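--- STAGE predict ---
source: upstream dedup step, 1 unique chain passed
mode: sequence only
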Amino acid sequence: MGRVYYITHSGELRREENTIVFENSEFKKSIPIEDLDELFLLSEISTNSKALGLLSERGAVVH
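--- STAGE serialize ---
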């Protein structure tokens, strides 16, 4: 069973290799896709189809 992640800051969510990365002006955080079950986006987020595709392939639920 994977983990649930909460993103509470505005920023960008993107794919780097086979990892999801969240970055804003203050910090950069890698989220290992193998360990991810659910992702809650609680702020304004920019993303792209590559990140969404990887999340979908791995069965991660995005709220």
